[in-house]
Write a structure and sequence with these properties.
The protein is built from 11 helices and 10 strands. It is α+β, with helices and mostly antiparallel strands and 348 residues long. The longest helix has 40 residues. Bound molecules: 3,4-dihydroxyphenylalanine (DAH).
């Protein structure tokens, strides 16, 4: 009987020595150690023995079982380790390989410029506000002192929606009205409003039916034109450098009185005369003025008590000057290369 046991053990050893597969190993294990297997069969033979031999036999049988289990277990462990190593090997990441380059975007040029002005004015206590692009005639024109039939409307012909009362705003100035109405004739106001504007125009290098303005409004007590000049000076020095000089020229807008055209000294030729300033040494960058008493009154502010100034920059014009862009369509053709070029220019 002992020999039989020894034989079984050797048989197992032989059978599993070339096994590389866990499933196969388990099959052999079942073959030998299950209830129908030869080892269990030996257990059944116990009852044929006397009690002394039974003891001896039991011991040997237990030994056999332990040994057989050990054989299976150690091979199982070996195969599992091998399998894991193989898996790790297959999934190995070579960190020395150069990474796939992810194309990085670049901030939109207009957006960048607007953010720069916003940050500056916010530091001076201004709120950045929004207004609707689909606007009422009342806000876009009438309350700004431009009644129906006024010739000033010709220069701001825009796109009408449904009827003549609803339009795509031709300027951001209606946001002045909306903000003052909210202030209810009581609150002082400092706001800027950057936003899209529209006009009926034939697109070319200097005209676009869609463009962007940056509106500013300050309403308080005892505000004068010199406050406007000082504020304007700070903005353009931030955008074009400390050496930038400013100049006001008389102008006409229906919603400001007096009205001015605001010029900066040419940053390119510093007054010598060049193609950018058309040999004048000066470049016009915005319209501005003191808020017209009629407009203050329309919005519930008593002009005897309150005064204010307003300005409106053309964002594309500022960006074209700052970045040396000579075609306004650059901003609307969504060519990423352009954003990248001007982004880099700024880091220089
Ligand atoms: N809204 C004017 C335009 O589109 C620009 C402008 C001029 C805005 C004078 C102002 C201002 O706030 O005071 O031509």
């Amino acid at each position: 009987m002992k020999e039989k046991m020894q034989h079984l053990l050797e048989e197992i050893e032989e059978k599993i020595q070339d096994i590389k597969d866990l499933k196969k190993l388990n099959e052999i294990r079942m073959q030998y150690l299950s209830k129908k297997g030869p080892i269990h069969e030996l257990t059944a033979r116990m009852k044929e023995l006397d009690s002394e031999s039974k003891k001896e036999f039991g011991k040997s049988l237990n030994h056999l079982k332990t040994k057989a289990n050990q054989l299976f277990d150690s091979l199982k462990e070996k195969l599992e380790t091998e399998q894991l190593n193989q898996k790790l090997e297959n999934e190995k990441i070579d960190i020395s390989l150069p990474a796939t380059e992810i194309p990085m975007g670049a901030p939109n040029i207009l957006e960048k410029l607007v953010e720069e002005i916003e940050e500056l004015l916010m530091s001076m206590g201004y709120d950045v506000v929004d207004g609707p692009e689909i606007e009422q005639d009342k806000f876009n024109f009438e309350m700004l002192n431009i009644p129906k039939g006024h010739p000033a409307r010709d220069a701001q012909d825009t796109f009408y929606i449904q009827d003549e009362e609803i339009l795509l705003r031709s300027q951001t100035s209606p946001v002045q009205i909306r903000t003052m109405l909210e202030g209810k004739g009581e609150k002082p106001i400092r706001m800027i409003c950057p936003g899209k504007t529209y006009r009926r125009d034939d697109d070319d290098a200097t005209h676009s039916h869609q463009f962007m303005q940056i509106e500013g409004l300050l309403v308080d007590k005892n505000i004068s034109l010199s406050d406007l000049k000082g504020t304007f000076d700070i903005i353009v020095k931030k955008l074009f450098g400390e050496s930038c000089e400013t100049r006001f020229r008389p102008s006409y807008y229906q919603f400001t009185e007096p009205s001015v055209e605001t010029d900066i000294s040419c940053f390119n030729c510093h007054g010598e005369g060049c193609h950018i300033c058309k040999n004048t040494g000066w470049i016009t960058v915005s319209g501005a003025g003191m808020v017209h008493p009629n407009v203050l009154r329309n919005c519930g502010y008593d002009p005897k008590e309150w005064s204010g100034f307003a300005f409106g920059f053309g964002a594309e014009r500022l960006a074209m000057l700052k970045y040396g862009i000579n075609d306004v369509r650059t901003f609307y053709t969504t060519d990423l290369r352009e954003n990248k070029i001007f982004d880099r220019k700024d880091d220089d």
